[in-house]
Amino acid sequence: MGLSARDAVHLKEALQIAVVKCSERCLYQSAKWAAELLDALPDRADDELDEKPAGGYGNKYVHPAFFPSPDPEEAALEAKELNRYLLAKSFFDCKEFDRCAAVFLPESLLAGVLSKSADSTSPRGKGKASASLSAQSVLPKISQKSLFLALYAKVISGEKRKDEDSEMIMGPHDLGSVTNKQLLVVSRFLERWFSERKSDDGEMPATHGFLEYLYGMVLVKEKNDQTALEYLMQSVHLFPWNWGCWLEITNLISRVEQLNKIAPHMPQNIMSFIFHANTAVNLYQHGQDLAASLHDLLDIFPTSSFLLTCRALLNYHSKDLLAAEQDFSNLLALHPHRLDSLDHYSNILYVLNLRPKLAFLAHLCSSIDKFRPESCVVIGNYYSLLSLHEKAVQYFRRALTLDRSCLSAWTLMGHEYVELKNTHAAIESYRRAVDVNRRDYRAWYGLGQTYEVLEMHAYALWYYKKAAGLRPWDGKMWQAVGSCLQKMGRDRDGIKALKRALLADSYYDSTSSSFGSTGPIDRMAQMDPEVLLQIASMYDRLEEQEEAKAYMELCVAQEDGGAGLGADGAGLGDSVAIHHDSPGGVTSDAETEADKGGEGTGVTVATSRARMWLARYAMRTGDYATALRLATELCQDGVEVEEAKSLVREARSNLEPGGIGGS
Amino acid sequence: MSRNLTPAKIGLLVLIQLYTQGAVPNDGVVPVLDFLSSHVLGRDLTTPTSSPDDCWARVEGTIRLILSVRDFEQVLSPFAVADRLPGRRLWDRFLETLWSIDSLHALQEFIDRLPRLLAKSRDQLRKLAERGEEPPKGVLLSRNSPFGFFVRKCYLEFTRLQFDHAADLWKAFIKYRQPTAGYWRRRNPQHSRLSFDSVLMTGEHEWGDNTDEIAVVTYGNMLLGGDDGDASLVSSDDIESLLEMQVEAITRFGQRVPSQLKEKFDHLLKEGHSVPSLVHYLEFQDAYRAGDYTSTFNELHRYFDYTMQNRERPLSYQHALMNVAVVQSDLGCHKEALAMMLETIQTARENRDTVCLNFALNWLFHFGKSHPGLVRELESNSMLGSGKEMLSYLRVKAREMGLSVLCSSALIAEAKLGMANGESISAALENMVRSSQLIVEHNMTPMIGSQRLVTTSLWDRLGLASMSTMTCEVFLRCHATHSAFEDELKATSRLAGLLAGRGRYEEAFQKMEALGQNPLRSARASQYWHVYRGLLKLRRDLHRDNLEASDHLLLQLLQAGPECQDPDLVLIIDSIHIEALTRRGDFDAAFAKIERLIASLREDDRDINLRIRLLLSKVHLFDRIGRPEKGFTIAIRAASMAWRARLLSPLWQAIGAVAHILNALREFAAASRLLVAVIPRCLEADNSFTVGTLYSVLADAWVGQAGQRQGQQQALKRTEFLTRANEALDFAFQYFSAVEDAGKMGEALAKKATIMRAMGDYGRSEDYAAKYLALRREVVIRNG
Questions:
Q1: Which pLDDT band, with edges at 50, 70 and 90, does A563 fall under?
Q2: From the centroid of its chain, how far is CA B189?
Q3: How far apart are CA A33 and CA A21, in angstroms?
Q4: Does pLDDT of A582 surpass 50?
Q5: Which entry of A256, A648, B68, B242 is 20 to 30 Å from A209 by CA?
Q6: Residues of B at the A interface (Cβ-Cβ below 8 Å)?
Q7: Which residues of chain A neighbour B198 with C-beta distances below 8 Å?
Q8: Banded model confidence at residue A52, pLDDT cuts 50, 70, 90
Q9: Are the C-beta atoms of residues B495 and B469 closer than 8 Å to each other?
Q10: ipTM score here?
């Protein structure tokens, strides 16, 4: 998607204005995001557009960002209260939030707002507050900018107090029940403000969009999702350059269907495009379209760290770890001081087992700022990789102390507690993670695993299903669901789930290869013999011998790469499936295996058991020659030799008379 | 700053690893092990001495190792490596291992591998056997051996480190290793600029030009050559052990930290960013030795402020008070010191701190001995009674508590007191022997010094100069290295004094000059040294009749005297002052001074030796004004006092004085009998001037007897007496010339000339007269 010169200039100006406006309202993160994007916009030669600026030469060097508000009424108000605004802004910058709010909205006024609405809801409560005059107070007439700043300061002050009141992470009193006490006031205030504005003629006059954003944010915190979404949508229509607002919407969307449903109601501009891509990535979507749209966006903003992160995450979610690693590595080179989303990078390095690099990354993060949640997560991951789980927990905890909404830290801490066999704490951490973000499949999966360890299969199944719902194309999820079902004795459902797992694996293969990545990647290139064995044994239990035999044979066939066997995964033997559970015979050294190329899994426990079953089956059905062959193979493989030998003897003894009789 | 681990320790670990791998060749084993153990244990195995110089050298070695990798090079480069191709040095092998730690993770792995160096415990062996694995082979360190302990400790400390501290350690390690990069590059051509971190090196392919930026972000200023605070090479443990070593050396040997070392250590402290409270103690000690009053108290109080509530070294109030009191008295604030010490005693009693109480009482006793004026009003109403009772109380207490140091020092003090009071010599000897036994039993090397010194003074009193010389020599040769410098200084001064008494001034000065320069940086020691050296010079100048120079010196000494810690020195200065006054002929002033001193001594009940000396100088004064008979009773009293106290050397002087008076009373025969009996004993005392005087008095007695033999018939007898007198004068001249006493030499010559004339040998008389004149001229020329 190319961009004409004029468009580029407009985009640039719009972003510049966005940065100024967001910083005026102390929306630091949004301002940072916009500025980053602005920086990623490549410079063009200015000669292309030598049209005169609108305001004549006198204004040539005055940037539009500094032009007064187009709304004359607002502009007059802003001019009038400039002094007070500057005062409030500096208070905010000094983190004196209550003082900042009090510049425009004295406490008495807010109390009035609160008590009045309290009266309206409960007419019996005739307190002192209702007797006072302030109950009838009107909202102060101040500009929207100042109002936003004051209310926003109020919210932030409430957040700060909430953090201060919270107990130690996962301490005995840390129930996650501390709330932001300022939310009520702010939401009452905004409710009234909007209703007063609307009551004039039912039609709302245009606003800047920031108050809607604030109201939406407050509503989200009050868990009033539907209304929140409405206000947030209004806000992005009015002012699309506020990234914080888009993020709030992203957090509200938990399903792809939902995203597709609201997509038509979005404003059609580049921000919406970016939003769409980002949300899709966050929902673990992947596919050609998404990759293409990210590619287009990167054409416009070639060095945007945000978009590069999105692309890396996309690769990560589609299990193309090497490409993801490459992306993050480039990102690091471009923005060495940027800590955001390096925790995802550390996850990738963890999975790839690149220890020195992970150590280096941890060192880098800790050098930049050791008190950022991201740094702590990276360090925690490093320690987790070294199997120093206590230390890892310590660092995840630190991350959470710094930012309680740090999702990955909660999940990873859960993993660590599982390693430490502290299932109770693990469940609690996972639960917190899920409470923070309902889309985190790893936390759901972890919950399921933990309950499975505790042998509470019904619970485990519930959580596995959740995880599978979030990642329907991830075989691991379905496999978990299947084995859980198997343990609960629901063999039919279990078989279905496991077959789906097989399907999902092959699906990933085909998609990831479309990205053109090569090399040894830990992914399920073939059908997992384990899964096959499970399916077969379930069929066996259901006494469907033929099906069972077919799957057992398929399982054994995986040893030589399954070539020639007509299944979905066949023929894609360019890399090797290595299952972490496989002991001994199969080494975990991916590279040596990969060098052989095109080979199967070799002998694993699963295939041996399948072979044993087949041998026994052959014995039962009287096919002694096959039984003898299989049993001898078993002896050669060196698995369960004793049993195999007795089988061999038995088969021989059966064969001998038959052989004599036959000849 | 990390708590324990430093890059130097990693180096030591690498070396230990090399050793267990068998890379150290046979001839290198001993030096390498010595190097390792001296740093791991903080102790030298091959030369287990503990002289102050060794102490400082050890501190310096530790600092050097902490700061630079070069120390390893010095130890390792002479040896070939045993498990590689010939031609490689052990140093190369060491560097190879050092540079193989090429990332933070590699460091982590290196530490994780450390437990493999250790021998397996029985449990671990059983588990290995269960799993069917072979137990490890090769050199394994036992878990509780010094190296095993060191390895385990390092491992534990590393696992305890927070991540950022581990990263700091890694950075410090890079810094520490960097000086070897040049050498390593020559050996390893593929070594590149970024070799210090393998991640950066491999990342260079994908990061390209941005690699440098990433490196700078990660490693901070360090790469830009700036000073980076985080990556410090020292650990707080290092600093603390260094401090302890220094404090130990200071308190044990009473020396100041050599300035060069102090500079280095300050640098280290600055690098370490943290200041343990012991630093203040060290600075206090230094200021105290330097005699810097204000900073001494400043630092002392600072130290106590920091440690008063410290759990590691609980310091009670009374200890603090005691320290302050000692320091105050040493810096000359005797009154404040006394008040402080009384407070100490009170608090110690309240807190039932017997150790502190005993020390304080002991100190107070010694203090009372040297400053009787201050404690006088205290003693009259104290329950402790006189000094003797206090000492025996202390001794009994100390024995009860098992405080052998205090016990032996009480015994020594008792012996000293007995001698000072002129009591039984055998009792004093008994006490000395008992204390000596205690010292030997408990191997209290720091006590040897004071014990030896008291022994020396005992021999001195008995007039056995050779014995006291020998005692001093023995002490200086055998014990001086591990005792306080003050004792060494005193023993040396004593020796020098004895030499000077025999007139061997040059040798005496040489002895004084031969003392080390660093110990003399301590204010007290250098003051003592200067005063004593001044005294020796003064005595020589007086003998040489160089009154101007002696005046000059005397004025200075009289100034410095009262500040001096040793009251004995003050009295010596005073007596020399009297002598100088007499020599100059200012008899009134001399007499007044003697009277004043005698009065004050009698009041304070001081050492009997000093009183006898004063009495003798009074007698001498009477003699000088030409009325020797007036001094008769005094001389007799002095003689009897000296006899009772077995103070032999003053006794001979007193006898000499009596004989001189007898001469004046024309009792020549009695005088000569006395002298003939005394002179051989006096010769033992090695005091040439006294011997010379005695001989000259003897000559007078002979001449007097010759004068009593009038008439022809006794001419033979007279000639015989005159000859004897001449011989005695010869001896007198010999001894006087030994101490270069010009006046007495001249006197002897003049007397000889007179005797020759009386014998009728005018030629020789003329000779002597000419000699006498030549001598006078010489003196005049020499004195300018």
A1: very low
A2: 56
A3: 13
A4: no
A5: A256
A6: 103-106, 108, 112, 159, 163-164, 167, 170, 197-200, 203, 206-208, 210-211, 213-214, 217-220
A7: 356
A8: very low
A9: yes
A10: 0.74
In the block, tokens 């308190």 appear at B251
**pLDDT recorded at residue A565:** 41
Closest residue on chain A to B171 (Cα): A363
- Whether A332 contacts chain B with CB within 8 A: yes
Q: How far apart are CA A253 and CA A445, in angstroms?
A: 20
Identify which of B372, B374, B365 has the alpha carbon closest to the alpha carbon of residue B345.
B365
Please, what are the domains in chain A?
A: 1-65 (no CATH), 339-471 (1.25.40.10), 487-655 (1.25.40.10)
pLDDT score at A197: 76
Among the ranges given (A160-169, B571-580, B750-759), the one the predictor scored with the smallest mean pLDDT:
A160-169
User: How far apart, in whole angstroms, are the C-alpha atoms of residue A55 and residue B90?
Assistant: 79
* Rg value, chain B, Cα: 36
Query: CATH number of the domain at B666-784, please?
Result: 1.25.40.10
Query: What residues in B contact A362, CB-CB < 8 Å?
Result: 104, 163, 167
Q: Which of B705, B718, B646, B720 is closest to B675 using CA atoms?
A: B705
> Which DSSP category does B216 fall into?
H
For the segment B144-148, the average pLDDT, to the nearest whole number, is 87
Residue B745 has pLDDT above 50, yes or no: yes
Give the Cα separation of B117 and B20 in Å (integer). Answer: 7
DSSP B396-441: HHHHHHT-HHHHHHHHHHHHHHHHHTT--HHHHHHHHHHHHHHHHH
Among all residues of chain A, which has the CA nearest to that of B167? A363
A659, pLDDT greater than 70: no
Instruction: For residue A352, give the 3-state DSSP assignment.
Output: helix
The minimum CA-CA distance between B104 and chain A, rounded to whole Å, is 6
Cα(first)–Cα(last) distance of chain A, in Å?
79
B-chain CB neighbours of A337 within 8 Å are 217
B129-160 in b/e burial notation, b at 16+ Cβ within 10 A? eeeeeeeeeeebbeeeeebbbbbbebbebbee
User: What H or E segment, with its residue span, contains residue A528?
Assistant: none
Please, what sign has the CA dihedral across residues A115, A119, A120, A125? positive
Q: Which part of chain B is CATH 1.25.40.10?
A: 666-784
CA distance linking residue B185 with residue A601, whole number of Å: 45
| Chain centroid to CA A92 | 31
Asked whether the beta carbons of B442 and B413 are under 8 A apart, the reply is no
pTM: 0.75
Spatial contact of A186 and A154, defined as CB atoms under 8 Å apart: yes
Sign of the dihedral defined by the CA atoms of residues A530, A532, A538, A541, in that order: negative
